[in-house]
Write a structure and sequence with these properties.
- With about 375 residues, the protein is mainly α.
- The protein folds into two domains: about 1-155, no CATH class; about 180-345, no CATH class.
- The protein contains 13 helices and two strands.
- It has helices at about 1-30, 40-55, 60-70, 70-95, 110-120, 135-180, 185-195, 200-220, 235-250, 265-285, 300-315, 320-330, 335-345; strands spanning about 100-105, 130.
- A two-stranded antiparallel sheet has the order 1-2.
- Helix 1 (about 1-30) runs parallel beside helix 6 (about 135-180), helix 7 crosses helix 9 (about 235-250) and helix 9 packs antiparallel against helix 13.
- The relative contact order is 0.09.
- The model is unreliable at about 355-380 (pLDDT under 50).
Length: about 375
Amino acid sequence: MAILRVVEALAGAALVVTVLRDVFQSVVTPRPVGGFWRLGRFPVLRLWRPWRWLALRLGDAPRREALLGSFGPLAVILALVGWVAALLLGYGLLLDAMRTQIRPEPPTFWSSLYFAGTSMFTIGFGDFVPASAPTRVVALVAGATGLGVFAVVITFLFSLFAAFQRREVSVVMLEAAASAPPSGVTLLETFALAGILGELPDTFRSWQTWSAEVLDSHLAFPVLGYFRSSHDNDSWISSLGAVMDAATLVITSIDREATPGAPTSLYGRAKLMRSVGGHCIEDLVLYFGLDGDHTVGVELQEYRQARDRLAHAGYALRPEAEAWTMFQRIRSEYAGRVNALAEHWASPPAQWIGDRSPLKVRPQHNGRPPNHVPGVRARSG
């Protein structure tokens, strides 16, 4: 019996230490930490795929988006519940192993678990009292741990929502220029037709900063990736892909020197944006274990349509053969990875991004379809 008590105490202590380490790595450590079976990652990595499978089989689009959008917050709650339940079990095992030092002596394990709960939640009914130094220490540590974990998790929630809001501000602002779903071609058209081409480098610079922030926050707190954008047909993945496409078109297809009003910094800002954005996409794909193949994802006819739109907007273009070759090479470096992320998070399809086959017409925020959806092909058959 004594050996069983020792084993019970060791199991309880190991569980408490494991949970506290997991909370520290998931909440406090500002960098990605490995370990597949950590409680902080388990709800996201194990429940997302069946959740996504169920949501994609709903015929009603608002219900589907509502179900997909609820997973991120639910995953945070599940992690919190898992941490608390595991701590409660750990302290219950510890106190049950020392039941002879508690007055009155708990008759069953469930009574010890109840005493652990009143200690951890600092309720203190007084129906069980520690009668020795070791049990008093365990009860005090349980109370401190309970308060500490809840304080840290509440702070964690505020940090999560602050990071989410910073991410979404840029996504919503991009919609005004790139439409919804976002399009890199539309983004370039808007700046040219509005006569504000000189401000395009600042847009690339702001999205360069945005990419760096998303890379840092979404690797440190991967559950952020499962928080969907709150506006119809908006997605942070599609928005990043659209800006990457716009930067790629500037680098490969637009003749800056011959384009009226094009600033000298346009090419440099586009190149830096593509570099930082590509780094962000690559690291996210690697972290979540996705397969991003090297594919262009754009047919020559689609590229020609984009060139026609850009020329109509006032851009001077490089020769098609040279530009198409360069466009294929650069876009193949990130397009497959963007599509892998979009498919993983079931993002709304956009021009050149994600699974576009179901899109026949694109609904607007008011629920009324537009007359034309450039670059989006309908499903055949």
